[in-house]
């Protein structure tokens, strides 16, 4: 009986997570019919799940349109998760210093399997033009400077798992210690990022500057300070630079 209960509980949890993922793909919200099509779940099951999720604030329902969307309680959970990331704690002081130096937004992204997710961003006040590389944004490797910076640190087997669908030059990115991307995540923007390594030498995150292209004449000039910040964060995470090889000696 306990096994059946555990199995049922796991199945219910999996279904609830499927609903949340489906809603995440619909920023304007969707109906029960839309969720049924997206998840393959029966409407009666969906109503029960949505009622529970709404009671917890994880889902909200618009009475006029009858559309469901993600609730604000998820923002709080996400914020708590971000605060708990060790890399974020070590990165924030240096990110602020680089922001003051570059006078542009500095973003931190962490690797999540074949993607990177932006978990923190600092930017100087008063900038009239900003970029949309916001906290919570997820995109695949090796797209964008933050994604390329992580991708360049993966071994061949890990790169094969990513399933590269666009051109990239991981060898060059790794050799110079930073990656550059223009107009990849958002038109009219340029980004320079470098990979952050943990004590085991695994690339767990990337940090870098993201700015409107009109304000960055030569993005390679941002490379050295971005690389220096990534190395400092890596050091704080317990990484020994002597193990990095060519990428750290350039």
Secondary-structure element sequence?
HHHEEHHEEEHHHEEEHH
Q: In percent terms, what proportion of residues is strand? A: 15-25%
Helices, by number, come to: 10
Q: How do the strands line up in the largest sheet?
A: 5-4-3-8-7-6
Radius of gyration: 21 Å
The biggest sheet amounts to:
6 strands, antiparallel
Secondary structure: helix percent: 40-55%
Mean pLDDT: 87
Ends distance: 62 Å
Low-pLDDT stretches are 1-6, 243-250
Molecular shape: elongated
Structural class: alpha+beta
Strands, count: 8
Can you walk me through this structure?
It is a single chain. With 250 residues, this protein is of the alpha+beta class. The protein is built from 10 helices and 8 strands. The strands form 2 sheets. Strands 5-4-3-8-7-6 form a 6-stranded antiparallel sheet, with helices on both faces. The protein has a two-stranded antiparallel sheet with strand order 1-2. A hairpin with a 2-residue loop joins strand 3 (105-112) and strand 4 (115-122).
């Amino acid at each position: 009986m306990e096994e059946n209960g555990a199995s049922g509980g796991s199945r219910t949890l999996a279904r609830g997570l499927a609903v949340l993922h489906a809603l995440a793909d619909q920023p304007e919200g969707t109906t029960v019919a839309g969720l049924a099509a997206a998840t393959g779940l029966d409407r009666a099951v969906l109503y029960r799940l949505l009622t529970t999720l709404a009671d917890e604030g994880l889902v909200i329902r618009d009475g006029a349109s009858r559309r469901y969307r993600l609730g604000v309680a998820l923002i709080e959970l996400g914020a708590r998760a971000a605060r708990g990331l060790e890399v974020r704690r070590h990165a924030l002081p240096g990110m602020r210093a680089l922001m003051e130096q570059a006078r542009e937004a500095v973003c931190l992204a962490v690797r999540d399997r074949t993607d990177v997710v932006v978990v923190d961003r600092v930017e100087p006040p008063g900038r009239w033009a900003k970029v949309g590389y916001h906290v919570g944004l997820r995109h695949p490797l090796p797209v964008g400077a933050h994604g390329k910076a992580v991708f360049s640190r993966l071994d061949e087997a890990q790169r094969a798992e990513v399933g590269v669908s666009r051109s990239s030059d991981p060898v060059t990115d790794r050799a110079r210690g930073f990656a550059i991307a223009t107009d990849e995540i958002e038109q009219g923007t340029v980004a320079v990022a470098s990979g952050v390594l943990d004590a085991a030498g695994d690339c767990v995150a990337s940090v870098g500057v993201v700015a409107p292209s009109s304000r960055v004449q030569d993005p390679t000039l941002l490379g050295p300070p971005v690389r220096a910040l990534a190395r400092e964060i890596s050091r704080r995470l317990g990484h020994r630079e002597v193990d990095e090889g060519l990428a750290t000696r350039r």
